């Protein structure tokens, strides 16, 4: 497949040259030409001249651009692979060049909030569902594109670039988006599942980050595998309840994008979220941790958003609530653990 | 008083009757019926995956249900040869099943022939019989009828029945994007989707269309209305095609959808009530029937497929809300709603017309009082719910021109993807509901009914709806000052919503709160024998019929105003 024959004519756009973006661009480039968007000119130079992005090697079928307009004009299918903190900004930048024929698949795990002008999460205290947006909802709100999907699953970039076997879920309300995603990404080492519950899949990817922080904390306290098993199973129950309250289905949470990703992240010492928990348990404060992290761990933001949502939702989410107290209200991690051990859980599983 | 509503009569946009799309369609009726039948046949074949076994099953199911319908639920309007036709179908199916000489291909062909026979029959049955001369006559009758219903109040005495002192446009306020709909009707094809509260709606909308100078629209009317020959005459004259709710089989539904789609593609402006039937609860429709709506999207895609990319092939969705102070059949509607939702928890109270005194009181009111009606025409949208400008261009949220065709394109060409279009229909439905809420006009009567009901509900917070509507009358009294304060609270919130363009208000709400309340109490359900709201001699607010109050209150459901209580 390395030769550039007629079957490789299609140009696929990838937005974002971070580790995940590069991994996906490389996988896409096995079958098609890829145009990779990055904001910084020097990164584009590196891509086009040295076939690498920030030192990560790139497939030869990839070329770079820093023009949103060029990317949108050349490609019908776009993969948005950007951190959630920059998501809104990038989507707004692309919006003027996007048309209804564009098909967008994003791989971002995060939540955005939609508040009236001048309001912040601190000043509103509580959030309604309509004020919380998943990334696909951000795309729908900001652009005219409707055929939107997301990528979610246990996809550690490092392993993907090494070509180790993995799988992902492409979720969309549109069958054609799922089929397109499968066609473009599927390979001998990469399985692609489809799911029509895009909200449930996005939420799974978002909520597991909360549990990942808790997993890091358990590891930091040196509490062992029994504790981790307990956390993962209770974490999943919490994810199911939250996902249901936010409009996702149970099935998606217990699928690859939910439980699959949860198990992977809770065992991954490289994960930023895991690291936050770990360092908290070692006695650092949130401010100290954030100061030395390059990118914000998404789970921290998710905890704030979900905690605000809990006030209007009328449900309990003990792990999230306790992490919120640890992160923002000076509860010590040991005390929090004490609280969780005494929490009156009555039944193991009450949602199936 | 704000006078922003339309009072003048518009010039017809197509003066020559024989150029009206409906007239053209009537001229080509025979070919059109055939085309619809063929289209329906194709749809059924594709739905059954061209598999003769599945087709056979559909045919047998249809036969079984039709025979059952003929036996259990015959109507006067049904043709005489109904039983004979279905017996022939039965014979044909029997023959195919028993004929051992027929190979698979032969059987498939034979089943297709039976299918063709049925879709032909359905198609001919559904098709409308529009006659321009009848239309003109009907228009005059309708105009006269409306004048009687609405005009009587201002001109006293028996003579008022023949008075034209106040024209209809004084009483029926047409607001909103009237010029745009007139413009677009000459450029592309309009699909009008109004809210549905009263039997009056169909006639009212027909009348509005003609006042706006537009050629008649086609619309689906229940076949039961054609049972009565005088109704049949009017319905035909207004361009109605027939919808038989008894027939729920796949073949019929597909023929019906084909009819709607082909008529839109033909360029006939259409109208359907997307809520299906009248709103039983009095609420603005929130869940729409998507079947017919999907035909608008299909027709649009088909036009693009056929290369008609300019505005002449464009389909415009125009939401319309109709507001009344009263709905004649409200007691029946809300009773249906409550017994549907409450089941055994709800039992009927004694009848509306319990005494002859009440009946005469009703009749007196009916002939001596008038009432306002308002019709708001929403901004036109394309089939994906994007607003369109005066020239019919679709605009995105930032006002950039986009092409509706792009929604149906993949890899550069228009493609057919039923699952995609299903999602689009869903989106369109949601957009229409949103627009309904936005252009809905609050009347004084809605305000007072809403406030009174919510106050009673808040006072009896332990009771559920069904206990609430059975509250003994002596417990239902609200001191006037308290009531007025609550009305003000809700009014302020409504004005805030209006400033965000999320609701509209009638001009009579610009008066003082006392006047608004007075106006509202006078008008709310004014024709009912038992009034939803009255004022006692002491000045307190009382109700004579809790379920009616609930009905009129529901008009303001869906705006989050309940939270104020």
TrEMBL record, chain B:
Superkingdom of origin organism: Bacteria
Domain spans labelled Phospholipid/glycerol acyltransferase: 190-325
Pathway assignment: Phospholipid metabolism; CDP-diacylglycerol biosynthesis; CDP-diacylglycerol from sn-glycerol 3-phosphate: step 1/3
E.C. number(s) listed in UniProt: 2.3.1.15
Catalytic activity: sn-glycerol 3-phosphate + an acyl-CoA = a 1-acyl-sn-glycero-3-phosphate + CoA
Gene Ontology BP annotations: fatty acid metabolic process; glycerol-3-phosphate metabolic process; phospholipid biosynthetic process; triglyceride biosynthetic process
GO molecular function, one term: glycerol-3-phosphate O-acyltransferase activity
Residues spanning the membrane: 225-243
Record Pfam families: Acyltransferase (PF01553)
InterPro entries for this protein: GPAT/DHAPAT (IPR022284), Plipid/glycerol_acylTrfase (IPR002123)
Alphabetical UniProt keywords: Acyltransferase, Membrane, Transferase, Transmembrane, Transmembrane helix
Entry protein name: Glycerol-3-phosphate acyltransferase
